[in-house]
Amino acid sequence: MVGPTCIGKTKLSLFLSKKFKSDIISCDSQQFYKEINICNSKVNKNILKKYHHHFINICSVYEKFFNIYLYKKKVFSFLNKYFKKKNIIIMVGGSMLYEKTISNNLNLIKYNLIKNNKKDISIYLEYIKRKDIKIYNTLDKNNIKKIINYYNILINTKKKISYLFKKKNKINNFKVIKIGLYNKKKYILNNINNIVNLMFKNNVIFEMKKIFLNKKKKYINCIGYKDLYFFFKKNITLKQLIINMKYKIKKYYKKQITWYKKDLLINWFYNNNFNYIYNYIYKYLI
């Protein structure tokens, strides 16, 4: 279940979960964390009790970062057990790469980050040229972030990046139906404004301040994190914080649209046509 933020993916997932008597997996990377509930519009405790959700509240911001590699490993381990009992499961969330990692079984390149502690970027470029000339020839020499990223991969994996990119994704042992929700841009932007207003009405400031002030926190990277930081440091007003949060979420919405347009496997539906979507999936499964 994919689509831009504030489109109604959660409502549809609950509707389909009830219809198919199936569980729900979250692929929203912000909903993994127990302490963040308002800032990511997480479903409430009553819904979590009524519908079987997985990969929500599975770790803490005060623990080690729960990365995409660990997510993939745990999800596939869970699915192997789940499909022995049930035939259908619903995955929902707006973290694009997390969704695609499972639905397309992406071949992830794992490496330990080596920080850029060299002043001259030419050192990285020279190393890439020496180790993988094919990648070097296609690399934008002004893209410092990508240069350092490729350098990290070469140092850690000891394999050519061109070889790693050629490795095919594994084929899933289960069928995937991708359902995408859409609506007019005006509808989405209006929803974003309303949801951000609701977040502040529900005291998102108090929720995030508790985390910010705790020195033991290991991870926090929600949308608008920097703006919250500036607000707590009294560098911006509450009014400016709300404006900035709305702007950042709208920017993320545009990023999601660009990402999803590239995925030709998505079947798109108007976001309020739940019964039509259910019938489409049901016919596909027969």
UniProtKB/TrEMBL annotation:
A biological process (GO) annotation for this entry? tRNA modification
Q: Which reaction does it catalyse?
A: adenosine(37) in tRNA + dimethylallyl diphosphate = N(6)-dimethylallyladenosine(37) in tRNA + diphosphate
Any one Pfam family here would be IPPT
Q: Does the keyword Calcium apply?
A: no
Matches recorded under InterPro entries: Dimethylallyltransferase, IPT, P-loop_NTPase
Q: EC number(s) per UniProt?
A: 2.5.1.75
* UniProt KW keywords: ATP-binding, Magnesium, Nucleotide-binding, Transferase, tRNA processing
Q: Name one GO molecular function term.
A: tRNA dimethylallyltransferase activity
User: What NCBIfam families does UniProt report for this protein, alphabetically?
Assistant: miaA
What family does the entry list? Belongs to the IPP transferase family.
- What does it do? Catalyzes the transfer of a dimethylallyl group onto the adenine at position 37 in tRNAs that read codons beginning with uridine, leading to the formation of N6-(dimethylallyl)adenosine (i(6)A).
Q: What is this protein called?
A: tRNA dimethylallyltransferase
Q: What is the lineage of its organism?
A: Bacteria, Pseudomonadati, Bacteroidota, Flavobacteriia, Flavobacteriales
